[in-house]
C-alpha cells in the first residue's frame, strides 16, 4: 500500500469506456481504455487514487440503449462507473482529508475526480478501514453486496422461522453471502450453481446443506433432489427459467426476493422465454418482491454491524476473485456474466 | 319462489358433467347433462334444491388434466362444482332445517346432496337472507367474489393513501367490485375492458375515472392515456400481457394483487408468451402477491359488513348476468371466457 503523501496527481486519468453496445454477451472490443488530461480540482472536489473497484452483473443492462431512470444506460464513449474505494490524493472538499479511504461510485478508472455532495446512495463517503473492515470489503460484504443479501433475506424476503431457503447463483458475491446469512440464522439452505466446482464450494466452504449444478442436473430435477418437500423463500439472482422452476416448488405463503435476473441480461426481451407459471403465485399465495440495495440504504449501519461481527469471529467468509489492473476489468466482467467466477469479482489497481 | 314445504324430493338429480377435456376455448360438446337417481340421505346429510349457482373463470383451469392440489382437476364424467345457494328440502343434519337457505359448493346441478362437515371454505353453511342480502348475493358481492375484491385490494394489495388503482377485466364480477371499493375508499381508479360497451359501463355505472378497450386501443396506449403518471396498485384479473403492461407503468413501491389470469386459462403453458419484464419489479421495488379468496376466509364477516352497508345505502351496485336453467350453464361459462358477459354470471334454476 503506497503512502498517499508520496502520491502526486497524475497528468492524465485512464478509464474504461463503452466503445459499442454489446450484441448479447459482451466481448473485449465493446470496451476501450482512454486517457483524459487531469486539470486539477474545482472547489468542493477531491481526487482519489482508486485501489479497488467492483464489476457487477447488473452493469450489463446499462450497456444496452434504453431509458430506465433507475439504471441509467451508457452512451458510446461514456466512462463506465460502479463502486470503488481509493485514497484521497488532493482535496478541496471539507471532511475529505488527504490519505482518507473513500467509498464512491467512480470505478472503472485509475483516479476519480469526485464532488462532495449531499449524502446519497452513490455520493462519496469516508470509510473506517481496519483489520476486519478491509477497504475492499466496502465494495462487497460490508457494502452493496452485503446490503443486498442481508436486506433481501431479512427485509424483502421476510425470512421466518423454519423457512427452507433456496439461493441461485450461490457461488457469486451476493448469493454466497445470502447462503451464509441464512445458515447463520439457523435455516436449511439449498443452492443452485453453474458448475460442479461451485456446487462443492457452496457446500464445503459456505456451508449450504445441498447444492446442484443446474447445467448438468437441470433445475426441476435438482430442486426435487435438494428440496423434496419444497421451499419457503427463494433468493433469486437469476430470473427467467430459474424463477419459473422455483415457483413450482414454493410452498403456500412462500416468498421470492427478486434481486437480479442475470439470465436475462444478455438477451433481448423479445427473445426471452418469459415466466409462464405465475399462476402458481395465485394458487399458493406467494409474494414476489423486487428490490435494489439502494432502497434499503438507511439500513447500512445495521447490516454492517451484523456482518462485521460475523467476519470478525470467522463465522462468515468472503471469497474474492481479484484481477490486477484496469486493462483486465472487461475480461473480469465478461467472465462473471459467463458464470466463470467464484466470489466477489474485484479489480485491484 | 316456491314454498319449500311443498317441494318433494326428486326421483333423479340432473347435473352438468365434463364430457371431454376442452382444446382451448371450451365448446358445448365438452359438457353433458346427466341424470342420477336420488336414493335418499345418509345420516348427517341434507338435500338442497339449488336456486342459483355461479360460473367462474377459474373453473376453466380445472377442466384440463393436471395435478394441482389447490384447483383439483376434473376427470371425464365428473360433475362440475362451484358455489351455489339453495333451500333445504330434506335434512338429516343438525342445524340445517327444511326451508333454510344454504350456501355450498355443489353447483352445476339442480339438487345437491350435501354432507354437514366441519366448517371449511367449501362446507355448507346456512345464510341469513334478507331484502339486502339476497340469496344470489352470497355467490357474489357477499361471497367469494366480494371477498376476492375486498381482500385483494385491502389485504393483498395493501391499498394506501393516494394510490392510483388499475383494475383489469373491470366489467366482470370481481373487477367491478374492485373498481367500486377503490372508489368508495377515495382513490383514482382506471380500468381495462374488452369492449366499448364495457368501457362505458365501468365509467358510467361503476364510477371508474377512466377506462379503455384494450382490444382496440392496446394496453400500452390505453394505460398511457388513462394513467399518464403511472399507477400504484394493479388488481390483476387477466395475467399475461396485461400484467406485463402494468409492470411498465407501476410506480416505485407499487403492488400487484394477482387474482386471476384468465388470459392464460385457455392456452397451454408452452404456447403462452410469458412475462418477460419482471426486472421492472427489481428496478421499482414492486411487490406481486398472489391469492385465492379462501386464504382470507376468516375475514368474510368483515367483508360482509362493509359490502352489505354499501349495498344497503345504494353506494355499491352489483350487476348480474343471469341465464335460466341448467342447460344454459355451459353457454354462460363459455360466454364469460370469451369476455361477452358484464357483471356476475349466474345460472338461475
Q: What is the CATH homologous superfamily assignment of the largest domain in chain A?
A: Medium-chain alcohol dehydrogenases, catalytic domain
- Say how many strands of chain A there are: 15
Q: Per the principal axes of the C-alpha atoms, what is the gross shape of chain A?
A: globular
Which stretches of chain A of 5+ consecutive residues score pLDDT under 50?
none
How big a fraction of the residues of chain A is strand? 15-25%
Helix-strand category of chain A: alpha/beta
What does the average pLDDT of chain A come to?
A: 93
Number of discrete domains of chain A: 2
Helix and strand succession of chain A?
A: EEEHEEEEHEHEHEHHEHEHEHEHE
| Count of alpha/pi helices of chain A | 10
The largest sheet of chain A, given as strand count, sense and whether it forms a barrel, is: 7 strands, mixed
The oligomeric state is: homodimer
CA gyration radius of chain A, whole angstroms = 20 Å
Helix content of chain A: 25-40%
| CATH architecture group name of the largest domain in chain A | Alpha-Beta Complex
3D architecture notes:
Two copies of one chain form a homodimer. The first copy, chain A, is an alpha/beta fold and 349 residues long. Chain A has two domains: 4-140 and 318-348, Quinone Oxidoreductase, Chain A, domain 1 (Alpha-Beta Complex); 144-294, NAD(P)-binding Rossmann-like Domain (Rossmann fold), CATH 3.40.50. Chain A contains ten helices and 15 strands. Chain A has helices at residues 59-62, 144-156, 173-184, 196-204, 214-217, 219-226, 240-249, 279-284, 300-312, 329-337, and strands spanning 12-18, 31-37, 45-54, 84-91, 101-104, 111-115, 125-126, 164-167, 188-193, 210-213, 231-236, 250-258, 287-290, 320-324, 344-348. In chain A, strands 3, 4, 5, 6, 7, 14 and 15 form a seven-stranded mixed beta sheet that branches. Chain A has a six-stranded parallel beta sheet with strand order 10-9-8-11-12-13, sandwiched between helices. A two-stranded antiparallel sheet of chain A has the order 1-2. In chain A, helix 2 packs across helix 3. The longest helix of chain A has 13 residues, at 144-156. The termini of chain A are close together. The A-B interface holds A 61, 68, 70-71, 239, 243, 258-261, 264, 269-270, 272-292, 295 and B 61, 68, 70-71, 239, 243, 258-261, 264, 269-270, 272-292, 295.
Amino acid at each position: 500500500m503506497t503512502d498517499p503523501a508520496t502520491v502526486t496527481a497524475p497528468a492524465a486519468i485512464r478509464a474504461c469506456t463503452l466503445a459499442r453496445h454489446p450484441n448479447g454477451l459482451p466481448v473485449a472490443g465493446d470496451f476501450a481504455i482512454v486517457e483524459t488530461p487531469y486539470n486539477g480540482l474545482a472547489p468542493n472536489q477531491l481526487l482519489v487514487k482508486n485501489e479497488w473497484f467492483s464489476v457487477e452483473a447488473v452493469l450489463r443492462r446499462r450497456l444496452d440503449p434504453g431509458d430506465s431512470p433507475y439504471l441509467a444506460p451508457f452512451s458510446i464513449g461514456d466512462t463506465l462507473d460502479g463502486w470503488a474505494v481509493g485514497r484521497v490524493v488532493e482535496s478541496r472538499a471539507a471532511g475529505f482529508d488527504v490519505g482518507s479511504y473513500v467509498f464512491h461510485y467512480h470505478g472503472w478508472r485509475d483516479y476519480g475526480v469526485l464532488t462532495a455532495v449531499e449524502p446519497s446512495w452513490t455520493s462519496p463517503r469516508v470509510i473506517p478501514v481496519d483489520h476486519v473492515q478491509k477497504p475492499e470489503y466496502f465494495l462487497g460484504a460490508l457494502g452493496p453486496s452485503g446490503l443486498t443479501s442481508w436486506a433481501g433475506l431479512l427485509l424483502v424476503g421476510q425470512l421466518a422461522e423454519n423457512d427452507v431457503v433456496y439461493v441461485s447463483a450461490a457461488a457469486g458475491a451476493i448469493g454466497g453471502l445470502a447462503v451464509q446469512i441464512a445458515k447463520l440464522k439457523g435455516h436449511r439452505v439449498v443452492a443452485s450453481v453453474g458448475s460442479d466446482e461451485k456446487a462443492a464450494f457452496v457446500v464445503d466452504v459456505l456451508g449450504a446443506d445441498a447444492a446442484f449444478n443446474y447445467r448438468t442436473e437441470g433445475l426441476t430435477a435438482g430442486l426435487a433432489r435438494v428440496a423434496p418437500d419444497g421451499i419457503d423463500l427463494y433468493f433469486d439472482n437469476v430470473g427467467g427459467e430459474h424463477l419459473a422452476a422455483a415457483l413450482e416448488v414454493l410452498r403456500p405463503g412462500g416468498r421470492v426476493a427478486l434481486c437480479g435476473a442475470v439470465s436475462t441480461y444478455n438477451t433481448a426481451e423479445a427473445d426471452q422465454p418469459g415466466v409462464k407459471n405465475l399462476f402458481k403465485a395465485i394458487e399458493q399465495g406467494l409474494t414476489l418482491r423486487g428490490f435494489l440495495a439502494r432502497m434499503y440504504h438507511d439500513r447500512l449501519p445495521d447490516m454492517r454491524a451484523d456482518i462485521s461481527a460475523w467476519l470478525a469471529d470467522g463465522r462468515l467468509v468472503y471469497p474474492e476473485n481479484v484481477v490486477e489492473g484496469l486493462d483486465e476489468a472487461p475480461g473480469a466482467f465478461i467472465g462473471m456474466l459467463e458464470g466463470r467466477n467464484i466470489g466477489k469479482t474485484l479489480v485491484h489497481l
